[in-house]
Design a protein that fits this description.
The protein has twelve helices and five strands. It is α+β, with helices and mostly antiparallel strands. α2 packs across α3. The radius of gyration is 21 Å and the shape is elongated.
Amino acid sequence: MLREWREDRRRSQMDLALDVGVSTRHLSFVETGKAKPSPELLLALAERLDVPLRERNALLLAAGYAPRYPQTPLDDESMAAVREALGGLIRAHDPYPAVVVDRCWDIVMSNAGAQAFLAGVAEHLLTPPLNSYRITLHPDGMAPRIENFEEWARELLATLDRQVAVTRDQRLRDLLDEVTGYPDVAALGTSWRRRGPTPTVVVPLRLRVGDGADAYTQSWFSTNTSIGTPVDITLEGLHVELFHPADEATAAMVGGRMR
């Protein structure tokens, strides 16, 4: 497992061994099972390799040690301060959309502004857990209303693909396999893996709102915030996505202003 993570991160045995202060020979013996590492060495190696907390527990278990990192449900009493902080952050962002998602992009919190994104989304996509990738890319979701669907989908798919590579998370891999099977996404082929020139500083989400003569287009870009120095698996996977108007017209449409 250590060798796989090291190779994923493109680190040599010598480079990694020097980084944690052990001999290359000892690290080689650890990787081949000839030497049993201490839990402290495992955690030091995992830290240098930027291994997710969930997978650090897996490394410890494989070596015969107890897991070190808890996975506390977000609704647990001990998470009250975190919930309050996240809730306050997304409420303060109203009337602009904001959501809190977990490691698999399931929406765990949202503000009032985010509800506007769900207009026209089929009921079967709104049963818990709501997944932002399914809601956005599924043909029964937001996809028909996204005017720059190809551009937006490519960015989302590239982001998810990078996460799969970094975390080696099977649930993320399954999600990527699922959404790339949607008809409009499948039509893109593998073009989303090749990053082309971007005409603006950010890729906006251009969303059509309303029908017929009353329809208009909103333009949004998003920012992401994560929790610093997490030592809990649940907290490590959480991040806040805040949508901001990409033009004055969109800000005026939702009753806000450019910030």
